[in-house]
Automatic annotation (TrEMBL):
Coiled-coil parts of chain: none
Basic and acidic residues bias locations: 348-362, 385-401
Protein name per UniProt: Serine/threonine-protein kinase RIO2
Enzyme class, first EC level, given as a word: transferase
Domain RIO kinase: 57-291
Reaction equation(s) it catalyzes: L-threonyl-[protein] + ATP = O-phospho-L-threonyl-[protein] + ADP + H(+); L-seryl-[protein] + ATP = O-phospho-L-seryl-[protein] + ADP + H(+)
Organism name: Bodo saltans
Example GO biological process: maturation of SSU-rRNA
Cofactor(s) the record lists: Mg(2+)
A single MF term (Gene Ontology): protein serine/threonine kinase activity
Compositional bias segments (type: Acidic residues): 313-336, 363-379
Region (Disordered): 313-404, 426-448
Protein backbone atom coordinates (compact mmCIF):
# COMPACT_ATOMS: atom_id res chain seq x y z
CA UNK A 1 0.00 0.00 0.00
CA UNK A 2 2.96 2.33 0.46
CA UNK A 3 3.55 2.36 -3.30
CA UNK A 4 -0.08 3.15 -4.12
CA UNK A 5 -1.06 6.74 -4.85
CA UNK A 6 -4.35 8.49 -4.27
CA UNK A 7 -5.17 8.29 -7.97
CA UNK A 8 -4.82 4.49 -7.87
CA UNK A 9 -7.34 4.22 -5.05
CA UNK A 10 -9.59 6.68 -6.87
CA UNK A 11 -9.61 4.45 -9.94
CA UNK A 12 -10.23 1.34 -7.81
CA UNK A 13 -13.14 3.07 -6.09
CA UNK A 14 -14.59 4.06 -9.48
CA UNK A 15 -14.21 0.45 -10.66
CA UNK A 16 -15.94 -0.77 -7.50
CA UNK A 17 -18.87 1.58 -8.11
CA UNK A 18 -19.13 0.58 -11.77
CA UNK A 19 -19.19 -3.12 -10.87
CA UNK A 20 -22.40 -2.73 -8.91
CA UNK A 21 -24.32 -3.32 -12.14
CA UNK A 22 -21.65 -4.93 -14.33
CA UNK A 23 -19.62 -8.11 -14.09
CA UNK A 24 -17.12 -6.35 -16.37
CA UNK A 25 -17.21 -2.57 -15.93
CA UNK A 26 -16.89 -0.60 -19.21
CA UNK A 27 -13.75 1.49 -19.42
CA UNK A 28 -15.70 4.58 -20.45
CA UNK A 29 -17.89 4.29 -17.36
CA UNK A 30 -14.88 3.92 -15.07
CA UNK A 31 -13.27 7.01 -16.62
CA UNK A 32 -16.46 8.98 -16.17
CA UNK A 33 -16.77 8.06 -12.47
CA UNK A 34 -13.06 8.58 -11.69
CA UNK A 35 -12.97 12.03 -13.37
CA UNK A 36 -9.20 12.07 -13.77
CA UNK A 37 -7.42 14.18 -16.40
CA UNK A 38 -7.45 12.85 -19.93
CA UNK A 39 -5.50 9.62 -20.18
CA UNK A 40 -4.85 9.41 -16.45
CA UNK A 41 -7.47 6.78 -15.75
CA UNK A 42 -6.29 4.43 -18.51
CA UNK A 43 -2.70 4.72 -17.31
CA UNK A 44 -3.71 3.78 -13.75
CA UNK A 45 -5.76 0.88 -15.06
CA UNK A 46 -2.77 -0.42 -17.01
CA UNK A 47 -0.56 -0.19 -13.91
CA UNK A 48 -3.11 -2.07 -11.81
CA UNK A 49 -3.41 -4.67 -14.54
CA UNK A 50 0.36 -5.24 -14.50
CA UNK A 51 0.22 -5.78 -10.74
CA UNK A 52 -2.64 -8.29 -11.28
CA UNK A 53 -5.13 -6.42 -9.14
CA UNK A 54 -7.72 -6.24 -11.91
CA UNK A 55 -8.70 -8.25 -14.97
CA UNK A 56 -9.12 -6.92 -18.51
CA UNK A 57 -11.62 -8.11 -21.13
CA UNK A 58 -12.15 -6.94 -24.70
CA UNK A 59 -14.80 -9.28 -26.11
CA UNK A 60 -18.16 -7.55 -26.41
CA UNK A 61 -16.70 -4.25 -25.18
CA UNK A 62 -13.56 -2.96 -23.52
CA UNK A 63 -13.80 -3.27 -19.76
CA UNK A 64 -12.20 -4.28 -16.47
CA UNK A 65 -13.21 -6.37 -13.48
CA UNK A 66 -11.81 -6.23 -9.97
CA UNK A 67 -10.17 -9.07 -8.07
CA UNK A 68 -10.33 -9.72 -4.35
CA UNK A 69 -6.80 -8.32 -3.92
CA UNK A 70 -7.99 -4.87 -5.04
CA UNK A 71 -11.04 -5.11 -2.79
CA UNK A 72 -8.75 -6.02 0.12
CA UNK A 73 -6.60 -2.94 -0.51
CA UNK A 74 -9.63 -0.65 -0.53
CA UNK A 75 -10.82 -2.02 2.81
CA UNK A 76 -7.34 -1.94 4.35
CA UNK A 77 -6.83 1.68 3.32
CA UNK A 78 -10.08 2.68 5.05
CA UNK A 79 -9.18 0.73 8.20
CA UNK A 80 -5.64 2.13 8.28
CA UNK A 81 -6.97 5.69 8.11
CA UNK A 82 -9.12 4.97 11.16
CA UNK A 83 -6.15 3.50 13.02
CA UNK A 84 -7.82 0.11 13.40
CA UNK A 85 -5.19 -1.75 11.35
CA UNK A 86 -1.64 -0.49 11.14
CA UNK A 87 0.21 -3.71 10.34
CA UNK A 88 -0.62 -7.10 8.84
CA UNK A 89 1.00 -10.41 9.70
CA UNK A 90 0.60 -13.98 8.50
CA UNK A 91 -2.54 -15.89 7.66
CA UNK A 92 -3.63 -18.01 10.62
CA UNK A 93 -6.75 -19.58 9.13
CA UNK A 94 -8.44 -20.33 5.84
CA UNK A 95 -11.94 -21.62 5.16
CA UNK A 96 -14.38 -22.04 2.33
CA UNK A 97 -15.89 -18.58 3.00
CA UNK A 98 -13.08 -16.45 4.47
CA UNK A 99 -9.42 -15.91 5.31
CA UNK A 100 -8.16 -15.08 8.81
CA UNK A 101 -5.11 -12.79 9.12
CA UNK A 102 -3.26 -11.60 12.22
CA UNK A 103 -3.01 -7.78 12.38
CA UNK A 104 -2.08 -5.01 14.81
CA UNK A 105 -3.82 -1.79 15.74
CA UNK A 106 -2.28 1.61 16.41
CA UNK A 107 -1.57 0.66 20.05
CA UNK A 108 0.34 -2.48 19.08
CA UNK A 109 -2.38 -4.90 20.21
CA UNK A 110 -2.85 -8.12 18.27
CA UNK A 111 -6.18 -8.44 16.49
CA UNK A 112 -7.79 -10.74 13.97
CA UNK A 113 -8.94 -9.60 10.55
CA UNK A 114 -11.48 -11.74 8.74
CA UNK A 115 -11.82 -11.28 4.99
CA UNK A 116 -14.92 -12.74 3.37
CA UNK A 117 -14.20 -14.75 0.23
CA UNK A 118 -17.61 -15.65 -1.16
CA UNK A 119 -17.55 -17.01 -4.71
CA UNK A 120 -14.70 -19.45 -4.33
CA UNK A 121 -14.95 -22.59 -6.43
CA UNK A 122 -15.27 -24.63 -3.23
CA UNK A 123 -18.36 -22.73 -2.06
CA UNK A 124 -20.37 -21.33 -4.95
CA UNK A 125 -23.68 -22.63 -3.54
CA UNK A 126 -23.76 -19.73 -1.08
CA UNK A 127 -27.10 -18.49 -2.46
CA UNK A 128 -28.72 -21.76 -1.39
CA UNK A 129 -26.90 -22.20 1.94
CA UNK A 130 -26.74 -18.61 3.21
CA UNK A 131 -29.53 -16.03 3.39
CA UNK A 132 -27.36 -12.92 3.25
CA UNK A 133 -29.91 -10.87 1.29
CA UNK A 134 -32.75 -11.69 3.67
CA UNK A 135 -36.23 -13.18 3.26
CA UNK A 136 -34.90 -16.03 1.13
CA UNK A 137 -33.82 -13.83 -1.80
CA UNK A 138 -31.39 -15.54 -4.15
CA UNK A 139 -28.41 -14.13 -6.03
CA UNK A 140 -29.59 -12.60 -9.29
CA UNK A 141 -26.70 -10.83 -10.96
CA UNK A 142 -25.13 -9.40 -7.81
CA UNK A 143 -21.36 -9.61 -7.70
CA UNK A 144 -19.55 -11.77 -5.16
CA UNK A 145 -18.04 -8.60 -3.70
CA UNK A 146 -21.52 -7.34 -2.86
CA UNK A 147 -22.47 -10.64 -1.18
CA UNK A 148 -19.18 -10.66 0.75
CA UNK A 149 -19.92 -7.14 1.94
CA UNK A 150 -23.38 -8.19 3.11
CA UNK A 151 -21.90 -11.18 4.94
CA UNK A 152 -19.38 -8.97 6.77
CA UNK A 153 -22.03 -6.43 7.75
CA UNK A 154 -24.29 -9.18 9.03
CA UNK A 155 -21.54 -10.88 11.04
CA UNK A 156 -20.39 -7.60 12.60
CA UNK A 157 -23.98 -6.73 13.59
CA UNK A 158 -24.51 -10.16 15.17
CA UNK A 159 -21.14 -10.05 16.96
CA UNK A 160 -21.71 -6.57 18.41
CA UNK A 161 -25.23 -7.42 19.57
CA UNK A 162 -24.20 -10.72 21.19
CA UNK A 163 -21.15 -9.15 22.83
CA UNK A 164 -23.29 -6.40 24.35
CA UNK A 165 -25.72 -9.05 25.66
CA UNK A 166 -22.90 -10.93 27.43
CA UNK A 167 -22.54 -13.91 25.09
CA UNK A 168 -19.08 -15.56 24.80
CA UNK A 169 -18.02 -14.11 21.44
CA UNK A 170 -14.93 -12.14 20.34
CA UNK A 171 -15.06 -8.39 20.89
CA UNK A 172 -15.92 -6.60 17.62
CA UNK A 173 -13.63 -3.70 16.76
CA UNK A 174 -14.39 -2.41 13.27
CA UNK A 175 -15.50 -3.43 9.80
CA UNK A 176 -15.31 -2.06 6.27
CA UNK A 177 -16.62 -3.60 3.06
CA UNK A 178 -15.95 -7.36 3.34
CA UNK A 179 -13.51 -7.10 6.29
CA UNK A 180 -14.32 -7.61 9.98
CA UNK A 181 -11.75 -6.80 12.69
CA UNK A 182 -12.14 -8.45 16.11
CA UNK A 183 -10.05 -9.21 19.16
CA UNK A 184 -7.69 -12.17 19.23
CA UNK A 185 -9.17 -15.03 21.26
CA UNK A 186 -6.57 -16.94 23.27
CA UNK A 187 -7.89 -20.41 22.77
CA UNK A 188 -7.83 -23.51 20.57
CA UNK A 189 -10.27 -24.60 17.94
CA UNK A 190 -12.36 -27.52 19.18
CA UNK A 191 -11.48 -29.58 16.13
CA UNK A 192 -7.76 -29.34 17.02
CA UNK A 193 -8.18 -30.70 20.56
CA UNK A 194 -7.51 -34.41 21.02
CA UNK A 195 -7.77 -34.69 24.80
CA UNK A 196 -9.56 -32.59 27.44
CA UNK A 197 -8.24 -34.32 30.57
CA UNK A 198 -11.65 -35.35 31.85
CA UNK A 199 -13.51 -32.09 31.03
CA UNK A 200 -15.38 -33.49 28.01
CA UNK A 201 -18.78 -33.64 29.71
CA UNK A 202 -18.40 -30.11 31.10
CA UNK A 203 -17.52 -28.64 27.71
CA UNK A 204 -20.32 -30.59 26.01
CA UNK A 205 -22.90 -29.33 28.50
CA UNK A 206 -21.62 -25.76 28.14
CA UNK A 207 -21.98 -25.97 24.36
CA UNK A 208 -25.56 -27.21 24.65
CA UNK A 209 -26.35 -24.54 27.25
CA UNK A 210 -25.02 -21.89 24.86
CA UNK A 211 -27.23 -23.20 22.04
CA UNK A 212 -30.32 -23.17 24.28
CA UNK A 213 -29.49 -19.66 25.54
CA UNK A 214 -29.22 -18.41 21.96
CA UNK A 215 -32.59 -19.97 21.12
CA UNK A 216 -34.16 -18.35 24.18
CA UNK A 217 -33.03 -14.99 22.77
CA UNK A 218 -34.56 -15.81 19.38
CA UNK A 219 -31.46 -16.94 17.45
CA UNK A 220 -30.16 -20.21 16.00
CA UNK A 221 -26.50 -20.48 15.00
CA UNK A 222 -27.10 -22.71 11.99
CA UNK A 223 -23.50 -23.99 11.83
CA UNK A 224 -22.67 -24.85 15.45
CA UNK A 225 -19.91 -27.45 15.04
CA UNK A 226 -16.33 -28.15 16.06
CA UNK A 227 -14.97 -25.72 13.44
CA UNK A 228 -16.83 -22.71 14.90
CA UNK A 229 -16.16 -23.31 18.62
CA UNK A 230 -13.01 -22.28 20.47
CA UNK A 231 -11.98 -23.60 23.91
CA UNK A 232 -9.87 -21.45 26.25
CA UNK A 233 -7.30 -22.71 28.77
CA UNK A 234 -9.92 -22.79 31.53
CA UNK A 235 -12.32 -24.73 29.22
CA UNK A 236 -14.66 -21.84 28.46
CA UNK A 237 -16.59 -21.97 25.18
CA UNK A 238 -16.16 -19.13 22.68
CA UNK A 239 -18.48 -19.01 19.66
CA UNK A 240 -17.25 -17.69 16.29
CA UNK A 241 -18.46 -17.41 12.70
CA UNK A 242 -22.15 -16.54 12.71
CA UNK A 243 -23.21 -14.69 9.54
CA UNK A 244 -25.62 -17.58 8.82
CA UNK A 245 -27.68 -17.12 12.03
CA UNK A 246 -31.43 -17.34 11.60
CA UNK A 247 -34.43 -16.50 13.76
CA UNK A 248 -36.40 -19.04 15.75
CA UNK A 249 -39.39 -17.91 13.67
CA UNK A 250 -37.67 -19.18 10.52
CA UNK A 251 -39.57 -21.89 8.66
CA UNK A 252 -36.59 -24.26 9.04
CA UNK A 253 -35.73 -23.28 12.62
CA UNK A 254 -36.55 -26.68 14.17
CA UNK A 255 -34.58 -28.53 11.53
CA UNK A 256 -31.51 -26.29 11.91
CA UNK A 257 -31.57 -26.50 15.71
CA UNK A 258 -31.84 -30.30 15.66
CA UNK A 259 -29.03 -30.51 13.11
CA UNK A 260 -26.69 -28.44 15.31
CA UNK A 261 -27.51 -30.60 18.34
CA UNK A 262 -26.95 -33.81 16.40
CA UNK A 263 -23.67 -32.65 14.87
CA UNK A 264 -22.31 -31.68 18.28
CA UNK A 265 -23.40 -34.99 19.80
CA UNK A 266 -21.79 -36.97 16.98
CA UNK A 267 -18.49 -35.12 17.37
CA UNK A 268 -18.21 -35.60 21.15
CA UNK A 269 -19.23 -39.23 20.83
CA UNK A 270 -16.69 -39.89 18.07
CA UNK A 271 -13.76 -37.86 19.37
CA UNK A 272 -14.05 -38.04 23.18
CA UNK A 273 -16.26 -41.15 23.62
CA UNK A 274 -18.95 -39.25 25.50
CA UNK A 275 -21.73 -41.74 26.27
CA UNK A 276 -24.36 -39.56 27.96
CA UNK A 277 -25.64 -37.46 25.08
CA UNK A 278 -28.36 -34.83 25.44
CA UNK A 279 -30.82 -33.83 22.75
CA UNK A 280 -32.70 -30.64 23.69
CA UNK A 281 -35.66 -29.72 21.51
CA UNK A 282 -36.54 -26.26 20.27
CA UNK A 283 -40.26 -26.76 20.81
CA UNK A 284 -40.14 -28.45 24.23
CA UNK A 285 -36.98 -27.26 26.03
CA UNK A 286 -36.71 -23.64 24.84
CA UNK A 287 -38.80 -20.81 26.23
CA UNK A 288 -38.25 -17.53 24.42
CA UNK A 289 -37.34 -14.63 26.70
CA UNK A 290 -35.90 -12.00 24.30
CA UNK A 291 -36.09 -10.91 20.66
CA UNK A 292 -32.52 -10.36 19.46
CA UNK A 293 -33.51 -11.60 16.01
CA UNK A 294 -35.62 -8.47 15.53
CA UNK A 295 -32.77 -6.19 16.59
CA UNK A 296 -30.29 -7.75 14.16
CA UNK A 297 -32.80 -8.44 11.35
CA UNK A 298 -32.05 -12.16 11.40
CA UNK A 299 -33.31 -14.24 8.51
CA UNK A 300 -36.83 -15.53 9.07
CA UNK A 301 -38.01 -12.98 11.63
CA UNK A 302 -41.10 -10.84 11.16
CA UNK A 303 -39.80 -7.74 9.34
CA UNK A 304 -41.07 -4.19 9.70
CA UNK A 305 -42.55 -4.37 6.21
CA UNK A 306 -44.43 -7.53 7.07
CA UNK A 307 -45.60 -5.92 10.34
CA UNK A 308 -46.91 -2.90 8.41
CA UNK A 309 -48.66 -5.18 5.92
CA UNK A 310 -50.25 -7.10 8.78
CA UNK A 311 -51.44 -3.88 10.44
CA UNK A 312 -52.85 -2.66 7.12
CA UNK A 313 -54.71 -5.94 6.66
CA UNK A 314 -56.09 -5.69 10.20
CA UNK A 315 -57.21 -2.11 9.56
CA UNK A 316 -58.94 -3.25 6.37
CA UNK A 317 -60.72 -5.98 8.31
CA UNK A 318 -61.82 -3.47 10.95
CA UNK A 319 -63.06 -1.09 8.23
CA UNK A 320 -64.98 -3.91 6.60
CA UNK A 321 -66.60 -4.80 9.90
CA UNK A 322 -67.55 -1.15 10.51
CA UNK A 323 -68.98 -0.89 6.99
CA UNK A 324 -71.00 -4.03 7.55
CA UNK A 325 -72.31 -2.63 10.84
CA UNK A 326 -73.24 0.65 9.12
CA UNK A 327 -75.02 -1.25 6.37
CA UNK A 328 -76.94 -3.24 8.98
CA UNK A 329 -77.91 0.00 10.75
CA UNK A 330 -79.05 1.51 7.44
CA UNK A 331 -81.10 -1.55 6.59
CA UNK A 332 -82.69 -1.42 10.06
CA UNK A 333 -83.52 2.27 9.59
CA UNK A 334 -84.97 1.55 6.16
CA UNK A 335 -87.12 -1.21 7.54
CA UNK A 336 -88.34 1.06 10.36
CA UNK A 337 -89.19 3.82 7.88
CA UNK A 338 -90.96 1.34 5.66
CA UNK A 339 -93.04 0.04 8.59
CA UNK A 340 -94.00 3.59 9.65
CA UNK A 341 -95.00 4.47 6.07
CA UNK A 342 -97.11 1.36 5.79
CA UNK A 343 -98.76 2.11 9.14
CA UNK A 344 -99.53 5.68 8.04
CA UNK A 345 -100.94 4.43 4.75
CA UNK A 346 -103.13 1.95 6.58
CA UNK A 347 -104.44 4.67 8.88
CA UNK A 348 -105.13 7.01 5.97
CA UNK A 349 -107.25 4.38 4.31
CA UNK A 350 -109.67 4.40 7.24
CA UNK A 351 -110.00 8.23 7.34
CA UNK A 352 -112.76 10.27 5.64
CA UNK A 353 -111.99 11.30 1.97
CA UNK A 354 -113.18 14.87 2.64
CA UNK A 355 -110.69 15.26 5.46
CA UNK A 356 -107.91 13.93 3.25
CA UNK A 357 -108.71 16.50 0.56
CA UNK A 358 -108.61 19.32 3.14
CA UNK A 359 -105.23 18.10 4.44
CA UNK A 360 -103.76 17.97 0.93
CA UNK A 361 -104.88 21.54 0.22
CA UNK A 362 -103.35 22.81 3.46
CA UNK A 363 -100.12 20.99 2.75
CA UNK A 364 -99.90 22.49 -0.74
CA UNK A 365 -100.41 25.96 0.66
CA UNK A 366 -97.70 25.45 3.28
CA UNK A 367 -95.19 24.25 0.68
CA UNK A 368 -95.84 27.22 -1.61
CA UNK A 369 -95.42 29.64 1.27
CA UNK A 370 -92.18 27.93 2.41
CA UNK A 371 -90.65 28.14 -1.06
CA UNK A 372 -91.43 31.84 -1.32
CA UNK A 373 -89.86 32.48 2.08
CA UNK A 374 -86.70 30.56 1.14
CA UNK A 375 -86.23 32.43 -2.14
CA UNK A 376 -86.71 35.74 -0.37
CA UNK A 377 -84.21 34.88 2.38
CA UNK A 378 -81.39 33.98 -0.07
CA UNK A 379 -79.73 37.28 -0.88
CA UNK A 380 -77.30 38.12 -3.65
CA UNK A 381 -74.54 38.97 -1.14
CA UNK A 382 -74.50 35.44 0.27
CA UNK A 383 -74.31 33.98 -3.22
CA UNK A 384 -71.31 36.12 -4.19
CA UNK A 385 -69.50 35.33 -0.92
CA UNK A 386 -70.06 31.61 -1.39
CA UNK A 387 -68.71 31.78 -4.96
CA UNK A 388 -65.58 33.65 -3.83
CA UNK A 389 -65.01 31.14 -1.05
CA UNK A 390 -65.22 28.22 -3.46
CA UNK A 391 -62.78 29.85 -5.90
CA UNK A 392 -60.32 30.62 -3.09
CA UNK A 393 -60.43 27.01 -1.86
CA UNK A 394 -59.86 25.76 -5.40
CA UNK A 395 -56.82 28.05 -5.84
CA UNK A 396 -55.39 26.85 -2.53
CA UNK A 397 -55.80 23.23 -3.56
CA UNK A 398 -54.09 23.93 -6.89
CA UNK A 399 -51.15 25.65 -5.16
CA UNK A 400 -50.83 22.84 -2.64
CA UNK A 401 -50.84 20.14 -5.32
CA UNK A 402 -48.40 21.99 -7.60
CA UNK A 403 -44.76 21.30 -6.55
CA UNK A 404 -43.56 24.26 -8.63
CA UNK A 405 -45.24 26.67 -6.22
CA UNK A 406 -44.82 27.28 -2.52
CA UNK A 407 -47.68 27.78 -0.08
CA UNK A 408 -48.30 31.45 -0.90
CA UNK A 409 -48.30 30.96 -4.68
CA UNK A 410 -44.67 32.05 -5.30
CA UNK A 411 -42.58 29.98 -7.72
CA UNK A 412 -40.39 27.41 -5.96
CA UNK A 413 -37.05 28.15 -7.63
CA UNK A 414 -35.14 25.39 -5.82
CA UNK A 415 -37.53 22.74 -7.06
CA UNK A 416 -37.47 24.13 -10.60
CA UNK A 417 -33.64 24.15 -10.64
CA UNK A 418 -33.55 20.61 -9.29
CA UNK A 419 -35.95 19.42 -11.98
CA UNK A 420 -33.92 21.15 -14.70
CA UNK A 421 -30.72 19.50 -13.46
CA UNK A 422 -32.39 16.10 -13.46
CA UNK A 423 -33.65 16.65 -17.02
CA UNK A 424 -30.19 17.66 -18.21
CA UNK A 425 -28.58 14.70 -16.42
CA UNK A 426 -31.15 12.33 -17.88
CA UNK A 427 -30.39 13.56 -21.40
CA UNK A 428 -26.65 13.20 -20.80
CA UNK A 429 -27.11 9.67 -19.47
CA UNK A 430 -29.25 8.81 -22.47
CA UNK A 431 -26.54 10.03 -24.84
CA UNK A 432 -23.86 8.18 -22.87
CA UNK A 433 -25.86 4.93 -22.95
CA UNK A 434 -26.41 5.36 -26.68
CA UNK A 435 -22.65 5.64 -27.23
CA UNK A 436 -22.07 2.63 -24.97
CA UNK A 437 -24.57 0.61 -26.98
CA UNK A 438 -22.83 1.63 -30.20
CA UNK A 439 -19.45 0.54 -28.80
CA UNK A 440 -20.88 -2.79 -27.64
CA UNK A 441 -22.34 -3.36 -31.11
CA UNK A 442 -18.90 -2.71 -32.62
CA UNK A 443 -17.39 -5.15 -30.13
CA UNK A 444 -19.89 -7.85 -31.04
CA UNK A 445 -19.23 -7.32 -34.74
CA UNK A 446 -15.49 -7.61 -34.10
CA UNK A 447 -16.00 -10.79 -32.11
CA UNK A 448 -18.17 -12.28 -34.89
CA UNK A 449 -15.53 -11.53 -37.54
CA UNK A 450 -12.80 -13.09 -35.39
CA UNK A 451 -14.93 -16.18 -34.88
CA UNK A 452 -15.59 -16.49 -38.61
CA UNK A 453 -11.89 -16.14 -39.39
CA UNK A 454 -11.06 -18.77 -36.80
CA UNK A 455 -13.61 -21.22 -38.20
CA UNK A 456 -12.54 -20.67 -41.81
CA UNK A 457 -10.16 -23.33 -43.13
CA UNK A 458 -7.48 -22.89 -45.83
CA UNK A 459 -8.01 -19.17 -45.86
CA UNK A 460 -5.75 -17.18 -48.14
CA UNK A 461 -5.73 -13.63 -49.32
CA UNK A 462 -5.10 -14.74 -52.96
CA UNK A 463 -8.01 -17.24 -53.20
Amino acid sequence: MRFFEDEDFRVLTALEMAMRNHDVAPTALVERIAQLPRGGCRKRLQDLLKRKFIHHENTAYDGYSMKYAAYDFLALRALSKRGTVTGAGSRIGCGKESDIILVQDENGNDCVMKLQRLGRCSFRSVSRNRDYKGNGKTRRGESWFYLSRLAAQKEFAFMKMLYDEGFPVPKPIDHNRHVVVMELVKGTLLNHIQDMAGHEHKVYERCLALMVRLAEHGLIHGDFNEFNIMITDDFRVIMIDFPQMVSTDHRNAVELFDRDVQNLANFFSRRFRVETLLHPSLEKDVERTAALDRQAFASGFFTKKQQMELEAMLEEEVDKEEDEEDEEDETNDDTQEATTETSVAVKSRHEDPAKEAVKEDNAGDEEDGGEEDDTDSMSETDTIAETKRQRLNQVRRDVKDNPNLVGNGVINMEYVKKRMKSVVKRSEDREFNRNMHRNSQKGRAKERIQRELKNTKDFSLFD
